[in-house]
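COMPLEX REQUEST
Ligand: (2S)-2-hydroxybutanedioic acid
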Amino acid sequence: MISRDATSLLRRSLLTLAASAALLPTAFAQAPIVIKFSHVVAVDTPKGKGAEFFAKRAAELTKGRVKVEVYPNSQLYKDKEEMEALQLGSVQMLAPSLSKFAPLGVKEFEVFDLPFIFDGYDDLHKITQGPVGASLLKKLETRGITGLAYWDNGFKVMSANKPLKFVEDYKGVKMRIQSSKVLDAQMRAIGVVPQVMAFSETYQALQTGVVDGTENPPSNLFTQKMHEVQKHVSVTNHGYLGYAVVVNKKFWDGLPADIRAALTKAMAESTKVADDIAFQDNQDALAKVKASGKTTVYTPTNAERFLLKKAMVPVHKQMASRIGDDTIQEIYKVTGFDPTKL
Ligand code: LMR
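STATUS: Structure written out below.
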């Protein structure tokens, strides 16, 4: 005989079990897919704002089924580590600068580092929004990475604690560069002593004199407060710095098709927003650097800029076997750049 107490205990337990079972599928269905998006720059930059916009649109377009968590400012990982983290799946999304893909073995990306190869954003977009850009992104797949989009930052300025007016002024200046052999060659071409360093370590290296100067789009210079430790900026616009937004391929391929479609739409919208912000932010940042009064901002004359170009463009030929001459030639064809006309 089972006692009345035992029967009621059994009934209560069964009811509790049934209630929890009823909750289970709902709980699982509601758990959002989390995308960790790590980057190394400040929140208040073109990439930082683009990432926030993407997070917002991804949540809206998937009706909360995707949650993008943005980790700015090398909070999670520094330059080199973030690539490894992406490949291992510890983060799902990154937007490293194009200069940072060569260490993965995709050296063609260093084509974007070639000095003076793009005359402005119009030239650049012919590549990043055209077939050459698409075929470069495709090359990342063998590394377990899917390229979703290119996001702009901007054209770089040089900075140091001495005026950088003439090519000779660069001789012997120690400058921080991103880890790119093309940037190394570009700097050596004008007598700079280049030093590869993580972005997150640059401000301190400038402040303590480990390096004398660096190159940046104005938005990065300003948001990292580098102008506070650099007395002179020269608006050389000698090269471009932009990003590839990338995801872990296994993660991306494993997403439900409707989610992938919504995220693709969110990315297309974010690319437009990020590019517009980049254009405006770099102008604003330069104005703010000037207004700070801490740095002298010099714009080289056409003649001075031409001499810099003449000194740097031989790097295209020098780096052709590393990057692939076909990639360089394809860009020349699309943009009309002619290195012989110097
Ligand atoms: C740098 O290292 O200078 C840049 O790649 C930082 C960034 O992500 O814009």
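REMARKS: The longest strand covers residues 145-155. The CA atoms of residues 43 and 72 lie 6 Å apart.
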